[in-house]
Amino acid sequence: MIKLALFVFVLLVRGVAFATSQDICEVEATSPTLAHRQRVVQTIRIFVDENIKQRSNRFRRHVLADRAGVSLRDLNRCFISVVGLAPAQFVLSRKLEAVHEGLLHPRNGETVAQVALEYGFTELGRFSGYYKKKFGELPSATLQRGLKSNAEESQ
């Protein structure tokens, strides 16, 4: 699909009514392979996981693209084709999963706000909405389950 779109783009840019074999080869050469797209996503996944507790500005698209050595457009294409999410959605999802784990295994006396802030969420109302949409429950319910589980394990 991407190759076809690039092919049509080449036709439009060159203003020709038909494509040559050279045009087709150029399009194939600029089309990233699946392995390349997976490497880009893996590079960013590692970067995000290593810096998961940082504020969101660390994960701006241009920073991620620079980190992976690709353009913004290629970064987006790689994530959409490999993960099915845009880079920002991917980062949000990873952060929410980390908070979820933190709430399931809370440290002594830890609150939802403390865990959320620890992972860079500063707008707690918005965080709660994202969390509920992803996990189907409020973060406070997850924390209660985590506290209950910890109490049962300590007995």
Description:
Helix 1 packs across helix 2, helix 3 packs across helix 5 and helix 6 (87-104) packs parallel to helix 9. Among the domains are: 1-31; 91-154, Arc Repressor Mutant, subunit A. It has 155 residues and is an all-alpha fold. The chain has helices at residues 2-14, 21-30, 34-50, 61-68, 72-82, 87-104, 112-118, 124-135, 139-154. Helices cover 72% and strands 0% of the residues. The longest helix is centred in the middle third of the chain and has 18 residues, at 87-104. The radius of gyration is 21 Å and the shape is elongated.
Low-confidence stretches: 6-30
For the secondary structure, the number of strands is 0
The averaged pLDDT comes out at 83
Residues in helix, %: over 70%
Q: Give the name of the CATH superfamily of one domain.
A: Homeodomain-like
Task: Determine the number of helices (DSSP H or I, runs of at least 4 residues).
Answer: 9
CATH first level of one domain: Mainly Alpha
CATH architecture of one domain: Orthogonal Bundle
Supply the helix-strand structural class: mainly alpha
Strand fraction band? under 5%
Distance between the termini: 58 Å
Rounded to an integer, what's the Rg over CA atoms? 21 Å
Looking at the structure, the CATH topology of one domain is Arc Repressor Mutant, subunit A
Strand and helix order: HHHHHHHHH
